[in-house]
Amino acid sequence: MTARRTLTALLTAAVAFGGTVLLGAPAAQADSLGTLAAAPATGSDVSPMALKTSGTCPDPADYLIVSVTGAGFPAAGQNVVGNSPVSIYPSAGSGYEVPLTETMRDYANTAGFKTLQGRYEFTVTCRRAFGSDTYGDFKGSIWFTSNTAYQSTAPAVATTASLTMSPAGSSVQGSAVTFTAKITPSTAPGSVRFYDGTSPYGPPVTVTNGSAKLTSTALAAGTHSLKAQFTPANPANHIASSSAAVPYTVKLRPPTVTTAPKITGTVRVGSTVTCSVKFSGATTVRHQWLRDGTAISGATGATRVLGAADRAHKLSCRPSGVNSGGTTTATSPAVTVATGPALRATTAPAISGTAKVGSKLTAKAGTWTPAAQSYSYVWKRDGKAISGATKSTYTAVKADKGHKLSLTVTAGRAGFANGSATSKSVTVS
């Protein structure tokens, strides 16, 4: 009965002072004795609340006082239970159950503010009835998740995730690309999973000091939408978050030469040669032929028929492999173009006219491959050249009578060796 009367007197005194008991506040902070737990664990701003200590006050402390700190209350704390003998509180396991004299809304009104928010820490201080000596504290907290509702566990902390890429914006296929996720707060433990669109990219990466990195060379050519997703180690403590999508382009790697260029075929005038080369990754292969290192106008095919202008010059080819990522160019070794083969008669030369003394004979040059551009003539008597008889016509003389006349034609073409052929003979009468 005595304990109850004492508790009633203290509660009445608390009300008389507007819910704030100022009696005997401790002069100094003492050592921690343990923890406090709010009962009930969840409630509202106008619901009754008690604090359960994890232990009892040590000798010679036989009184306690309770204060609260947090948003709206004085920095030094506001008393919510005045200096009271520990004997009036019912046992709560190994400690005490200390009812608050008013509600949190009442205490907020007394302190002069309206919005209850965030964490509020209660301190039960063990002391004597008089004097300033204290003998240790029990501490515990509640969190207001709105102006009217509290809980006895810390709410999960919101996090933010951001993603940067290096190199920024774009890269070349096959080159190293680094994903860097920044997590705020930096103390939030957990892991980051990177995504390419909706598909995971790479394994989860542990967050260290607020950062997670992944370096890869396997990002495919094309456009991408990349993001980082943070998963907290303990969802009760932190909230998962995702970064904004980061657009990224991987350019196709320029073609690579897999077989070096070279000129194949017979390198002489009149022959067709080929610029032989192999590229990896090329969508188009372009060619340029060079003469003595200078580009030949219009010579842009994979093959080239060698002409007279090429004879005795250094010929090379310069192929280029092309794709959307760029152009790769290589040049073949140079080769010297040889003289073309001798012209060949496809129709033999012939002598036209009447083969008799005083008659004019005319040379028929015949046909040649490749086509001849010039001809020279040698008339012969019995197979021997007739002095001065080098024109396309010849008039038979007395010395020819009874002898055989023939004609040797030499055909010429620029870049080719000369070709020669002899007609059938005719007997002069």
Summary keywords:
single chain, 429 residues, mainly beta, Immunoglobulin-like, 2 helices
Structural write-up:
With 429 residues, the chain is mainly β. It has four domains: 2-151, Immunoglobulin-like, CATH 2.60.40.10; 160-251, Immunoglobulins (Immunoglobulin-like), CATH 2.60.40.10; 256-336, Sandwich (Immunoglobulin-like), CATH 2.60.40.2700; 344-427, Immunoglobulin-like, CATH 2.60.40. It has two helices and 39 strands. The strands form nine sheets. Strands 1, 2, 3, 4, 5, 6, 7, 8, 9 and 10 form a ten-stranded mixed sheet that branches. Strands 12, 14, 15, 17, 18 and 19 form a six-stranded mixed sheet that branches. β20 and β21 form a beta hairpin. The longest helix has 15 residues, at 2-16. The radius of gyration is 54 Å and the shape is rod-shaped.
Shape: rod-shaped
What's the count of strands? 39
Strand content: over 45%
Task: State the oligomer.
Answer: single chain
Main beta sheet strand tally, sense and closure: 10 strands, mixed
